[in-house]
Automatic annotation (TrEMBL):
One CC-aspect GO term: membrane
Protein name as it appears in the record: Metallophosphatase
GO term, biological process aspect, one: lipid A biosynthetic process
Species of provenance: Clostridium tagluense
Sequence intervals crossing the membrane: none
Cofactor: a divalent metal cation
Pfam families, A to Z: Metallophos (PF00149)
Keyword DNA damage: no
Coiled coil: none
């Protein structure tokens, strides 16, 4: 009987501690994930790309936390910074909407800052504010379009698709101007949309949306999957196309609907691209 009581007490204690950690601790942590990606095996240049995604400013993520993200980004000395969607969780109820741009403006990099729309950047009235916030924050927004960059004699194309749930996502329009000779990067909010791009010579796709499920069970995966992030949920994947396209699903910074995170510490990702 004593042993049974001890087991019950320890079980309750462990469940309680896990609940506290999942609800209050992990979602307030922040890590930098570093990835080396070879695009040209004979390349001698390195391009530093920092990705942030799914901030979801609101009930579970505030501007003080975003300020810490900015500080960490600036310490990475990035060439390019990209944001792959979902800035504010619910714009209609967010009181600090006019202060967000001032924080984003502090992000520094050598070449440029680029962003795309997520579904939360349309919903909740966010579509009325998103362009203005991101532009004032120094970000160029892509909606099914791209830009050419010359970096140390290397031709780089960055493409950004519109959101696939609430926007006007168009694969062919997004990929207009792509060619085999350039280094081609694609920003895509919902990762499962990558299936439509498999015939294009894309080298690396950066996406978000999934939050890694927020609660991620080892050997099982996300406890709950989002629409359009059911196949590609977290981390790196490689398509079996001639280009060998790599896609990275970033589990993001913020939370939506519930305050839980487990095995999904909020992250900034930096990609050292060998080009």
């Amino acid at each position: 009987m004593r042993m049974r009581k001890k087991i019950i007490i320890w079980t309750i204690l462990c469940i309680s501690l896990l609940g506290i950690y999942t609800t209050f601790i992990e979602r307030n942590l922040l890590i930098v994930k570093r990835h080396n990606v070879t695009i040209n095996k004979n390349g001698k240049e390195e391009l530093k790309v920092v990705q942030i995604t799914d901030i979801h400013l609101g009930q579970f993520y505030n501007l003080d936390q975003l300020e810490k993200v900015v500080q960490k980004i600036n310490a990475l000395n990035a060439d390019i910074v990209v944001f792959t969607g979902d800035l504010i969780d619910n714009a209609s109820t967010y009181d600090e909407i006019y202060n967000v741009a001032d924080t984003l403006k502090k992000i520094k990099c050598r070449i440029g800052k680029y962003a795309i729309y997520g579904n939360h950047d349309y919903g909740g009235g966010a579509v009325r504010y998103y362009d203005d916030i991101m532009n004032k924050g120094g970000f160029k927004i892509f909606k099914n379009e791209g830009i050419s960059i010359l970096f140390k004699d290397k031709h780089i194309r960055i493409f950004g698709a519109d959101d696939g749930l609430m926007g006007n996502h168009n694969v062919d329009k997004t990929m207009n101007g792509i060619n085999n000779k350039s280094i081609n990067l694609l920003l895509l909010h919902e990762p499962d949309l990558i299936e439509g791009y498999s015939n294009y010579p894309v080298d690396l796709v950066l996406s978000g949306h999934s939050h890694g499920g927020q609660i991620y069970i080892p050997l099982y995966g996300p406890l709950k999957k989002n629409v359009l992030s059911e196949k590609y949920t977290k981390g790196f994947y490689k398509l079996g196309n001639p280009r060998g396209t790599k896609i990275y699903v970033n589990s993001g910074l913020g939370n939506t609907k519930v305050p839980f995170r487990l095995f999904n510490i909020p992250q900034i990702s930096i990609f050292n691209l060998k080009i």
